[in-house]
Amino acid sequence: MDTEKLSSSFNQRTKQLLDSSVVSKFVLKESGWITVEQHIAGSNSIELALKETSNALWKKIVKGEVELDSAKQIIKILSETLWFLDQSRYLARALEIAAKHGITVYDSLFLACAQTEGLVLVSCDDKQLEVAGVLGIDTLKI
User: Fold this and answer.
1) pTM for this structure?
2) Which of 9, 19, 134, 141 lies in the 20 to 30 Å Cα band around 44?
3) Fold of the domain built from segment(s) 3-141
């Protein structure tokens, strides 16, 4: 995708990046999930959020709290609703952030993406939000 098309596609979406904690909160209907609803459609994320949310759903399936077919439908809808940015572009920066700030590469991927793309990080993760502040990343805590 060329730069002009990339800029155009960013303009058609929100300037927010949803991390795994927010996506999972919404899908699993955890406390405060309704506040996430307004941020879901058209927002950005990385595929890691889809994988981590799928894993959270798997745990619910194992416990008998969610049916497999329902979980598959939820993941399908999420994959069509969020705009997933290529997380491989942010790995080197994520590793730097993780090493310097003592957080996981998983959490650092969202920070690196938000920082690189100038997106507001939407998260429930206090440690991640703290590091975002140090890095000068705009945040929204849900």
Assistant:
1) 0.86
2) 134
3) Rossmann fold (3.40.50)
